[in-house]
Amino acid sequence: MSRPTPDATRATERAWLVIVLVMASTCVAQAFGRFTWGVALPGARDDLLNGSNTLAGFFGTLNVTAYLLGTLAVSWAASRVTLVGLVRLGLTISTTALGLASVAPNAPVLGISLFMMGLGGAVIWIPSPAIAARVLPPHRAGMAIGMVGSGIGMGIVFAGQTAAFLGRRSDSADSWQTLYRIEFVVAVAVLIGAFVLLRSKGDRPSLAGGFGGFGALRTVHGWIPVTAAYACFGFAYILVLGFLVARLKDDSGFSSAQATAMFSLVGAGAAFGGIVLGPLSDRIGRRTTLTAAFILFGLCALLVLTGRQPWVFIASLGIGLFFSGMPAMITAHIVGHTDANTYGPAFSAATLAFGVMQMISPQIGGTLADALGSFTWVFVLSATVSFVGAGFSSRLPD
Fold it and tell me: CATH number for the 11-393 domain, one of 3.90.180.10, 3.40.50.300, 1.10.230.10, 1.20.1250.20?
């Protein structure tokens, strides 16, 4: 067996460096810029929002509304700006927003920072799977996409464990801002790495893909069920991740440390979801794997309602596993049915449907919790929509 040449070794090392940077970028975009709000919500709610779950849900809606607007922007920019350029721009926005949240003196400033986090998150996330997939051979693209999702899971673990540590060290009401300060420092390091180490091949797709990218999306085989499934995922998962800590603390009597530990467990599961479910779907098919994942995600949401161990432990791990695994499979389906010209607009269009459902989901969840006095029906609603997503997934082409 011949040994790899020095050039081949350097190319391999370069490819893994790119993947690690993309993983870190998606960690900043999603784990820090979006899902940390689920950990910070109880503290921020009591510190700046006068204890209102409805207002906390509205702030979550601000975040995902900005994500939706960012998706529209990327659908236009994908044919004009390199993928690496988009990631750098998104990181600049997200890092600035994290710094703003870390010093927010009042609710309006916090709302602005969460809006910017959502905007930056979309600009980072949409090009990231393609950047990761193109640096490895085609037969390993699914693994590369799964690793991008794993970066989000690792970030969630980091956010949850850091929040738990801060909670043990201090009872201060602004410990949630200390968490954002720490994440801001990490984001600055990732931003520097993106500008110094990520290199673009200068590829600028020539096809705009129609308004909002839907012209390109319609070229994807099975585009209707995959888009509908992605939309259901967007509605269902954010109810669980956004309100898990609050549900365990307010309704199940968990301490702050215990609740954030379960949130960290979600991140631990998410670190493996894409890596496990992506290759599995290569073997038994995207349709079968994604349908089963939706059903199991819904069952995990219902299992949280027991409020007792070890069921919450199992549910949290499963939620994380499917949370990162399902979008990895959806993305892999779209990547597999597009080329360099159509990927950006097509994935942007699918993400637009996903973003719309994210936009309405937190507000509905917060309003339900305030109206009914608990988070029980929030999780029942998440499970119901997840089962609907399983129905759409079963219609994917074989």
Answer: 1.20.1250.20
